[in-house]
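Q: My hope is that you can spare some time for a protein that puzzles me. Underneath my words sits a plain record pairing an amino acid chain with its backbone structure tokens. Those tokens are not coordinates but codes from a learned vocabulary of shapes. Thank you; the sequence and its tokens follow:
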Amino acid sequence: MKTASVIKCADQSPVTQEQLAQINRYSRRELTAQEVYVFSLILCDNEIDRDYERFTSHGLQKLSQLFLGKTGIFDHNPKGENQMSRIFATQVVEDTSRVTQIGEPYCALKAWAYMVRCEKNADLILEIDAGIKKEVSVGCSVERTECSVCGADIRAGACSHVVGKEYDGMLCHRILINPTDAYEWSFVAVPAQMSAGVVKGRLPSSSVPEGDLLKALDGSRDVTLTKGQVQRLKDHIHSLEGLAQAGEEHLLYLRKKAVAMSALALPGLDSKLVEEMVSPMDLAHLKKYVDGVCHTANQTLGLQTQFSSEIQGAPSQAVYDNHEFLI
């Protein structure tokens, strides 16, 4: 059994139509927003827990599918009367500001569950909101349990390494490989995983895949971002701000050059008028204008190089050997 915690609800936001659609996949009839109570929870993560076990990030991805539709009970007691809620959505979230004991990026399996608002559940809903019912534990099966030191399959036979003991500076623990089934999740008093439990917030109207962050921010719907996504968005904005500043400086340089070259190419044209004319131009039009006045200025002034490599009046192929540079 692995343990986790419920995310305490920050507010009583109304259940969205998208949430209802997800919930009603598991209901016998169409439920209304007024009939259900929604809360979110951290089921498990990839950190070493109190039992010296941990899931891999790949294992969390598999569990995110396996836990869809799974029921919530109490103390892993599989009686039907203990059923009180059901998971209707899951998401693996990553915290890039945090690493696990073995140095991997921290990630956790977050889930959203619903309960029926009725007299029987009123006290439990109050206890969840008050943070009394918080810690949870998950029941699941895995294909293999490996020793972190030697990689031996513990189910096939015990190895010589002791969990909780360090070997060459590495803490010995068990790695839970390839989850094959998820049974249930339970409210418990003491979870094995310290971070597992009820957490704040509700299901975003739509999950944001890691690769589609900017696409999701089109304003057509509400979204909730992970800490890692927020940091990447901040980095992207900071990069864009730097590019915008460089672009403004380049535009200012071109405007000044346009005024200066206009004075050479068209000396009778008022410089103030040129400033007003080029000020609203975008980069493409401004570059074309500058290229044009530079060409006109060169033709007007007849600019030539100081030295000539050809003899005046001689055939074009006659070339001197840099006699101008002799002293």
Observations:
- The longest helix spans residues 227-265.
- DSSP finds seven helices and eleven strands in the chain.
- The chain has a mean pLDDT of 80.
- The chain has two domains: 2-204, 229-301.
